[in-house]
Amino acid sequence: MFAPPVNRAMKVLDRAFFHRTIPTAAARIFKNQDIARCRTELDRTHDALKNRISPVRPDPDDARARKGGKCLLLRPEIVPSDRTTWSTKLQELEQSGTIGVIPYPLHLDYDYFTYQEITAAIIPPPEKANDDELPTGFTQTGHVAHLNLRERYLPYKHLIGEVLVDKTPLITTVINKLDDVGSDNAYRTFQYEVLHGPDDMNVTVNEQGCTFKFDFATVYWNTRLHTEHERLCSLFNAGDAVCDVMAGVGPFAIPAGKKRCFVYANDLNPESHKYLVDNIKTNKVGHFVRPFSTDGRDFIRSATADLLTTAHSVSIFPKPQKRPASAPRPTSPPKPLTTLVQPRIFAHYIMNLPASALTFLPSFIGLYSHIPDLPASQIRKLFAPHTDVQLPMIHVHCFSTKSDDNVAETKSICAEISRQLGYEITPETKDVLVHDVRDVAPKKRMFCASFRLPEEVAFREV
């Protein structure tokens, strides 16, 4: 009864077509002070209409409506002229003169119907039960909605885009991805076509209390990874040193900087580096986050060596207090609450390049055995038992197959880590965690393998 009219031949969106009038019943409430009580009682007896529209409506009589008259929509089974369809409570309210049960023509238009309802009324249903369902899922990045349309829906792609803009707040541009993001594209960008709206890919995204601005067409960003960004950042403590090897525009690095971590953030894509620099300024984390743009394998070694030999500290001052204009200015500078000293060892390395990040792991072999002007024996002293310094945690993202328990996938990922490092890492190894991040495809999942860099690997003579 509440579904929109169907038009499978529609090629250009006709919003006026989606209009229908439903003959329903309503309880005319004679005194507005009785509206709340009547609604409560008729909700309790399931007489009131349960729908996403408000059941309290203006009286259908224009004269009554102009005086503020209201009525309450009733469920479709109630017939005004047939009292046998009325509940006992409805009859009691009518007999007491509180309400009158009247016909009510309920008018629905395009604005009432949802994206799913409109597209289902335009696009033919699948021929087979196991065929693709209607494309209801999309990723929102700022004002851009990103679809991955299957071939069956391509003839309707512009209709889909137009309806999606109509029905989704803040969306002004809808795009369809034309190729895969993977190892064939070093920068993880993709080709796209605009389905509706302006070809404007300069977006603003807010995440973890940070603001990110970038051109979605030239850099990598995945809104569906926001929980993974939050999960890893929750592991970092103020004063930690973090090495983000494939930083993108900063979804790990910027929030870590907000937590007062010392971050070395790198991305090979010049466009990503440009927006990373801008986002560092926008979020005022320049004292904590340093941007780089070089090959990730080289960066792992160069950043490690630079951190060992670079002294840096940041003083944390109290927030300035508002003072009356007439108050004298302080004669001495404020004293810092504390001073954070940059560590010499990274506590965490992040490698968010799931298509190939595992192949970067050999860069950790002999990481501390060939630091210029620092013999390995001297570096070992940093990890002496009397210190609280531990070898770093490595967080490497990767793809694997999909199963119900992920046991085989965990073993397979650990086996590949072992092969890359020349050192056995198993699911039972201390500090090893293989975290299931998200579905990527029907038989493909993204994982994050976290493990502590083994001493034998870090100090191996190469």
UniProtKB/TrEMBL annotation:
Broad EC category: transferase
Signal sequence segment: none
Xref: SUPFAM superfamilies:
S-adenosyl-L-methionine-dependent methyltransferases
**Superkingdom in the source lineage:** Eukaryota
Subunit structure of this entry? Monomer.
Under the heading HAMAP family, the entry gives: TRM5
Protein's name in the database = tRNA (guanine(37)-N1)-methyltransferase
